[in-house]
Design brief:
40% of the residues lie in helices and 23% in strands. By secondary structure, it is an alpha/beta fold. It has a 6-stranded antiparallel sheet. Strand 12, helix 11 and strand 13 form a beta-alpha-beta unit. Helix 4 crosses helix 5, helix 6 packs across helix 7 and helix 6 packs across helix 10. The C terminus is likely disordered. The structure holds adenosine-5'-triphosphate. Adenosine-5'-triphosphate (ATP) binds next to helix 1.
Length: 386
């Protein structure tokens, strides 16, 4: 997957901006609060997904403007395509996000999901290592939903059944025929739960070695990362049914469902120790980054098209050699990195793009600090065509 050009109008603080990225690495530089993440977010929205910042559509439109427009040319497989995404305000004829793909009106932006694909790292993803199991389950489920359309349906069915079972457990003593109803719920949960577990296990079997390799590369072989699935029980509906039977009386006491995919976790060890407890900030960041890069490569293997990588503020807390890995060794996947670290500008062999006050330029803004080590603009600075 390759983004060839992007035109942004009235999106957040980007009144009118154009970007011609490198096919490999583009480093988006600028001080805090200038619009770097906004530019990255605009690329992400081309996927048809919601903002990775959890923002509402109306917040995406430049203040006082009626709507925002994103126009992109990209290559998927061997095919050049164009996508126009409009974010309409409440007062416009078409509020919300709508899309035109190759000149054809496709209605809601979500309908183009899967056409332009990207994986994003933003600092909130650090909770993948630092936070509780829920975030790790969400990571797994979000990745699986992208890969297998049926997964979302199965997940929703499972969540609905868990909610119904929880309601029953809470009112167990006053519900006629509660025992039989509980059996029925457990039977349904063991079938659809085992299905989700099988998908998660198969996905992690591919993700874990890829993430471990990425971590070795980022840390120059100095440290290891191990990612392990912690399933609720052995695979298969029969094992899950047995597990649900085992916890039956505990569930009756607790008043909610205690076993199944909604209680699982994924263990993330750095150098043999739980990363959540013992990992340093830089190690935790490297671990999340390794997982995100692995998510993209597994998606690339399964879907036959490597997603574009969007790495927001990924360099902070990383030492020089880890930064160098990101700034110079990304070789064949299109990647965008934002940074406000002016020293990073000098070290990259990617294409530099400068953002200042909502304006985007391929040359530094007047008065901007540019390190002396930075060589003059020239074709060998960029790895285009690499
Ligand atoms: N809807 C909007 N209309 C106008 N400006 C907006 C809108 N939404 C956000 N902004 C502005 O965008 C700016 C923030 O941009 P962005 O988040 O891209 O910063 P950044 O360059 O990534 O900074 P940092 O390095 O601190 O992460 C803020 O000044 C904010 O006021």
């Amino acid at each position: 997957m390759r983004l060839n050009s992007l035109k942004v109008t009235d999106f957040r603080n980007l009144e009118s901006a154009e970007l011609t990225p490198s096919p490999v690495l583009t480093v988006i530089c600028g001080p805090n609060g200038q619009g770097k993440t906004n530019l990255l977010e605009s690329i992400w929205l081309l996927t048809g997904g919601k903002s990775f910042r959890g923002s509402k559509d109306a917040e995406l439109i430049r203040r006082e403007a009626p709507f925002a427009v994103l126009e992109a040319d990209f290559t998927a497989g061997d095919r050049d395509q164009s996508l126009r995404l409009t974010v309409g305000g409440r007062d416009t004829k078409r509020p919300g996000r709508t899309a035109r793909l190759n000149g054809v009106d496709r209605g809601r932006a979500a309908s183009v999901a899967g056409t332009f694909t990207a994986v994003v790292f933003d600092p909130n993803h650090l909770s993948l290592v630092k936070g509780g199991p829920e975030g790790r389950r969400r990571f797994l489920d979000a990745a699986l939903c992208q890969l297998y359309p049926g997964y979302l349906t199965a997940l929703r069915r499972y969540a609905r059944t868990v909610a119904q079972k929880n309601a029953l457990l809470k009112a167990y003593d006053i519900t006629p025929g509660a025992g039989m109803m509980l059996d029925t719920f457990n039977e349904a949960l063991s079938v659809c739960g085992a299905d989700l577990m099988a998908r998660r296990a198969a996905y992690l079997e591919r993700l874990a070695p890829a993430a471990a390799q990425n971590y070795r590369d980022i840390s120059s072989g100095a440290e290891t990362l191990a990612v392990r699935y912690q399933p609720t029980c052995e695979p298969g509906p029969a094992a899950l049914a047995r597990k649900l039977e085992e916890v039956r009386s505990a569930e009756l006491r607790a008043g909610f469902c205690l076993a199944g995919p909604h209680r699982e976790d994924m263990e993330i060890d750095i150098d043999g120790q739980p990363g959540r407890i013992y990992g340093s900030q830089g190690q935790q960041r490297s671990a999340v980054l390794s997982l995100k890069l692995a998510e993209a490569s597994v998606a690339g293997e399964i879907l036959g098209e490597h997603p574009v990588m969007l790495l927001d503020d990924v360099l902070s807390e990383l030492d020089d050699s880890r930064q160098a890995y990101l700034l110079t060794r990304i070789e064949d996947k299109q990647t965008f990195v934002t940074t406000c670290d002016s020293a990073a500008f000098a070290r990259t062999n990617g294409k530099l793009v400068f953002v200042r006050g909502g304006k985007v330029s391929e040359t530094p803004f007047e008065g901007a600090a540019v390190p002396a080590a930075m060589p003059a603009e020239g074709p060998d600075r960029h790895r285009e065509g690499a």
